[in-house]
Amino acid sequence: MNAPASLGIGVRLIALDDPRETARVDAWLREQGEATPFHLTAWSRAVAEGCRQRAHYLVAEKGGALRGLLPLTEIRSPLFGRALVSAGFAVGGGILASDARAAELLARSGWDLARRLNCPTMELRGGSLPPGEWHGDDSVYAGFVRPLAIDDDAELLAIPRKQRAEVRRAFDFGLEVRIGRSVADRAAHHAVYAESVRNLGTPVFPRSLFDAVLDRFGEEADILTVFHQRRPIASVLSLYFNGSVMPYWGGGVAEARRWRANDLMYFALMSHARARGCDRFDFGRSKLGTGAFAFKKNWGFAPTPLRYYTRTAAGAEPRQIDPLSPKYRLQVAAWRKLPLWIANRLGPPIARGLG
Fold first, then answer.
1. Beta bridge partners of 83
2. Helix (H) or strand (E) holding 105
3. Which residues contact 101 (CB under 8 A, 6 or more apart)?
4. In the CATH scheme, what is the code of domain 2-141+307-319?
5. pLDDT tens readout for residues 137-179
6. N or C: which end of the chain has fewer CB within 10 A?
7. Is 143-301 a CATH 3.40.630.30 domain?
8. What is the rounded (10 degree) CA torsion for 153, 159, 164, 167?
């Protein structure tokens, strides 16, 4: 697909299986201050491989030089409908452009692609508001980012007093922390994460998604797991990008709270990320008014509203995938009661359509 050049700027789809194209795009975006790990071509490829949802990647160019990009995932679900999402299964990844005209052309080309793919909804997670019939909303989610302290002692002092006490309590329980990317690390993480989301009443993502992200990101992703008496009770898969660590898929089993395993997990991740050369901790997004939102504030992180944009075809309704919606109240309550082995079998086919 090629959009007509305007003022010398053209938009086209790149081939994600072309190493020269992907290396060029990734090199450019790493130099952009607003870039996220979800803009990386590795993310688009991992989602396509792990969830079997097709990836499309638009770039804007002028005179052979990149001016912007837009990673898109074509989400198709028998339960949740169709949508073109930037970026799929991500909390960011909207239009990234060096000027307003490139951003406008990327938004227009993305919407044209959505119509050709018969996707009645297009979602942009972050970036600036595109011109046209887009609805922006910053009242639902907030992000939490702050600098890492210079060492563990300073990090403890940066945590508010009550939460600091919880972290110190975790030190006394003889918990073990392991970090890696091995088959054993992946199995431990999936077991913990699957139980965690079942307890929240939501379906677990396919393990193939976690594997694909770890494989595509290489050393820029790993797993940190907390063990109690050799049993994994808290675990998180984190991404590393441009000096930031982002704990992305994490959780704990029911007994993790008793041993303060989640508190130790995040403190240990801060220390690990600092040793890797990171200087920022990106706690990701949380919905306003939730327990996760309060938990991150308790750690001393100030919330920053996240603005997302949606465009929907005339006569169509935006898709609804929010598990906190009253529409899904009964389903969430029922899911929490499922035996774990049933939830793990039924969950991935549902979750791969969420995007």
1. 75
2. helix 100-116
3. 6, 7, 9
4. 3.40.630.30
5. 999 999 999 999 999 999 999 999 999 999 999 999 999 999 9
6. N
7. yes
8. -80
